[in-house]
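Office hours follow-up: a student asked to see two folded examples consecutively, so here they are.
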Amino acid sequence: MLSFLKRGAAPAPDGAKASATGPVIAVQGAGRAVWSPRDAVSLTRTGFAANPVGFRAVKLIAEAAAALPVLVQDRSTRYDDHPVLALIRRPNAGQGRAELFEALFGQLLLTGNGYLEAVGDGGLPDELHVLRSDRMSLVPGADGWPVAYDYTVGGRSHRFAHGEGATPICHIKSFHPQDDHYGLSPMQAAATAIDVHNSASRWSKALLDNAARPSGAIVYRGADGQGQLSEDQYDRLLQEMETQHQGARNAGRPMLLEGGLDWKPMGFSPSDMEFQKTKEAAAREIATAFGVPPMLLGIPGDATYANYQEANRAFYRLTVLPLATRVTGAVGDWLSDHVGERVELRPDLDQVPALAAERDSQWRRVGAATFLTAAEKRALLGLPARGAGEDGDE
């Protein structure tokens, strides 16, 4: 289905332009796989599958961005029916547009990298599939730029060639200041806060298992003033405490102490009382790393936004739209190489309910600007220029 690229980069044609930093990037040698600095599998397990704040933040962003309507246009026409648009609407037999983009956005948020595979023998792909980022590794060439991608599952690997022109893999990555080939995910930035939040949850669970209160101390005072139990007495007392008084099912059970034994409960210290605030602070840090207003995640103590509607509008404007615009733009450029014509793929802002008020205000301001031509107004609103046969003032 797809050709393989032999190890090493092909010689550049005469006059070809390349970055002067390429040979420096490739100093470790051609053909070596470059691996991510963090274990994506462990981060996904602890920060997404085992952390409710990280899980909800990723789902909230991915679902919101995937639900945005997508339009296809070129410099002169916005298409209601186009082969690229038909492919995006039904990328493969098992997924629709929303499912495909949700998986792509999710991989990008969890690992900093998203990989989209084009299936076909040439021209417009027959199908599009999202590949797991933790299974993909980039193979740099002698010039420092990718020559192939290796996808490894269960000890078996498939190499996707990456050369000039249309390539079978679209690699979308977040900005990483210290990695030339892989992106930095919000999950990596929030890793410390996730560890704090998970540790706090485990501490709370242990506290609940211990009757939801701190432990106390049993003090023994013998009749003759001796303060030490015999070995048999100590083992018997310890066994009775473990079987009759520890655990949630024994919460509230009265304790029967024999002569010489006295129970001294221990209260919460000031640091224990601040424990819940520490957990909430960690949750806010996780939300901040992903760009989700804490109010939308139900995290208390945050008054950054006046109301839920304002927080939702800021969420779309500052997090969802930049991510969706960047990803759809990259996918559009990649598909343009396959179809042989330049098309633009981007979210349709006119159909985003959260931004309806801003969009209406913008349309009114631009429409009332008498000093602008119709073409300038259309450009400001993100609309393509009118065709030669359409009505207009030019």
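And the second, which I mentioned at the end of office hours:
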Amino acid sequence: MSAGYAQLLRTRHAARLLAGTLVGRLPNATGPLAVVLFTRAEGGGYVLAGVLSAVYGVGNAIGQPLLGRAVDMYGQPRVMLPAAVLSALAMGLPAVIGLEPLALVYAAMAVAGFFTPPLEGGLRALWPSVLKREDRVHAAYALDAVAQEVLFAVGPLLVTTCVALWSERWALLVINAIGVLGALSVVVSPPSRQWRSAPREAHWLGALRSSGMLVLIASFFFVGLALGSIAVAAVAYADEHGGGMVSSYLLSALGVGALLGGVVYGARQWPGHPENRLRLLATLLALGYVPLALTPGVLGMTLLTGLAGVFLAPALACAFVVVDRHAPRGTVTEAFSWLVTTFGVGSAVGMTAVGPAVERGGPAAGFAVAGAGGVLALLVLVSTKRFLSPVPDAAVHAPAQVTAETDRNEAVQPGFRAGHQA
């Protein structure tokens, strides 16, 4: 099972790019939890913590596709490193000044979110030029999703470890300093410096010209909502069950479950169209989120969150492939960044909604928000099936060698049928 992954990682630059991207994304992956813990330590309530996290998420949602489009136009180093530095400085400001003046803290959260570098979309844009073959690129998407879940498993533990060793303030500073180092490692690498996007048609909608992209954005908005609500609900659950590391147990179990699911999913090639497979995975994902509202004891809840995460990485890996098939030519980084954006917006909305839910109905109500998010994500995919129909293989299969951006985009705009191109 691990042989295929090992072969990919032995490819020149692959391990460095993957590791650098994961480290660079640490602030984005753990920032909301760090903000919640910091706000609570400073005397703020769950509503304020949720709103601050939401502001960060909305800023991230706006910035990711815009920065992704800038990367497609100007290259990765000129955009990603300055953005990473600005984001880290803004996120570190509340750690220095506290929660007052509140308007300045809101502004800092917005700037930190907006300038979060699109490392995730940038990595997926780099895979074709690094791996050369389409089958390896698709395997790399699965590996990427698996490695991402390692980040989500380890990240919360890193945050709470920083809190235990130092304080919530230092947790904010440390994770953002590490993030800048990760971004630096990526942008100074030869593949990142040499990468250029394929020529694109000038259009203000960019990647959003594809109806399939719009469906994915809508569906994964609700997946993000579920994950965002789980992050806050887990802290509330921990407050009622001993505090301390309990929230990290739950969030880490969610990541470990997704890690295991992703390893199994990425170990083989799956038959059929990925669009159809994505709907099946979304069904299983929803079935995992709904039982969280039962909120049993710590051991039972940890097991439930682990099971809830099993189909997250497979759903993400499959979604990456679907994005690759439906994104218009020349919008590769922007298209992947839009998928990341759905998590930012959805997570922000989830964190905002779950605060009042927790204060009125306790942790069970918070986890019920997560279950509703999973169900709505599935309903979007099922109700819009005709807009995310499978792309004919002739339109998406690349030749054995692919260039800096998937060659399949040279002849046909994925996601657009004959006579329906933008």
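Two things to take away from it. The CA atoms of residues 80 and 117 lie 5 Å apart. Residues 394-422 have pLDDT under 50 and may be disordered.
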